[in-house]
Design goal:
Layout (H helix, E strand, L loop, with lengths): L1 H17 L5 H10 L9 H26 L4 H17 E4 L3 E7 L2 E6 L2 E4 L5 E8 L3 E11 L5 E12 L2 H6 L4 H18 L3 H6 L1 H16 L4 E12 L2 H41 L4 H18 L8 H17 L1
Antiparallel strand pairs: 1-4, 2-3, 2-5, 6-7, 7-8
Helix pairs in contact: 2-6, 3-4, 6-8, 9-10
């Protein structure tokens, strides 16, 4: 029954997380309350407690029957009291758990994993701390960047509780505190960056968010493993503008590359013309290269001669005729 209940809670949480869109308050509440372990259960510890209860009650009941030769009300009450005392004294902490035990309201010790005992009424386990790595999703909606552009960012935080005592004593609800702190740090990091930096420098944004969270959570016994930005949503109209800007930058870079290559080629052709001893040889060589490129790109035997080249040929023919 316990496992099925946990499964239903997990399924409900996944359905809620899949729906949207969420407002900021709804996202915060969902992040703070939706954590349910999905691949582990406490069925073994529950079975152990039930077995201890039954064994203690049966032992006392058997002793009462042996002494009085009958089942009396006092015997039943004694068996029930013994079962409750045994159940509250003998416990099991799972392999990934630490249990903070208080004695008369004061911190006494941290136990687990494995079997441990407590003094009934005087001692009790106040909190069970899961020391596995926890993945906490968080988001920030309509957060303004440094250049006043609203963006929606979805990220995930990986962290672990390394000191159960601090997690119990220093903060009321360490999971909710980490969730709120992660979202606040995300907003602050985005507010310090422009929209271009947010979109293009995810690694830097991850590092800044992680550093901000670590400064606050260090005294809570929590270790921040990493922060990963999963998705960045920019307004659609701004996406079009940024796309046009990127295309213009690429076209400018392409033209600058072509111009640089043309300048290098002109220097090489000038040197070749000096070797031939003809100042006009450079232009003729460039014309031949242009023809070769045209034939290579077209893949046909038909050569298309540019207008400037044909004019050069005509001028050359006229000069040869005048010499004759």
């Amino acid at each position: 029954m316990f496992g099925s209940t946990r499964s239903k809670r997990t399924m409900r949480t996944e359905r809620e997380a899949a729906c949207g869109p969420w407002s900021d308050n709804e996202a915060e509440m969902l992040a703070a309350t939706s954590y349910v372990p999905r691949k582990s259960s406490r069925n073994g510890a529950l079975v152990f407690s039930v077995a201890v209860f039954l064994a203690a009650g049966a032992a006392v009941l058997a002793c009462g029957i042996a002494l009085e030769a009958r089942v009396s009300l006092a015997c039943i009450l004694g068996a029930l009291a013994a079962a409750l005392v045994a159940t509250s004294s003998l416990h099991i902490a799972l392999g990934w758990e630490k249990v903070v035990v208080l004695r008369l309201g004061k911190l006494h010790r941290v136990v687990g994993p494995g079997f441990y005992g407590t003094i009934p009424i005087l001692e009790y386990g106040t909190i069970r701390v899961d020391q596995r790595t926890i993945a906490t999703p968080f988001r920030a909606e309509r957060t303004l960047t440094a250049d006043l552009v609203p963006v929606n960012i979805d990220a995930v935080l990986f962290w672990v509780v390394w000191d159960a005592e601090k997690a119990c004593v220093e903060v009321e609800d360490y999971y909710a505190a980490i969730s709120y702190l992660a979202q606040t740090s995300l907003r602050e990091a985005v507010g310090r960056s422009t929209v271009a930096e947010v979109a293009l420098r995810r690694d830097q944004l991850d590092t800044e968010i992680k550093a901000d969270i670590e400064k606050e959570a260090a005294s809570w016994g929590v270790d921040i493993i990493s922060v990963k930005v999963r998705d960045i949503v920019i307004p659609s109209d701004l996406q079009n503008v940024m796309s046009l800007e990127a295309q213009a930058d690429r076209e400018r870079n392409a033209r600058m590359t072509v111009a640089s290559a043309e300048a290098d080629l002109a220097e090489m052709l000038t040197e070749a013309a000096q070797v031939y001893g003809d100042p006009e040889a450079a232009l003729k060589l460039r014309t031949m290269l242009m023809q070769y490129e045209t034939v290579k790109e077209s893949g046909s035997a038909v050569v298309t001669v540019p207008t400037a080249v044909s004019d050069g040929f005509a001028e050359g023919v006229c000069r040869e005729s005048a010499r004759v």
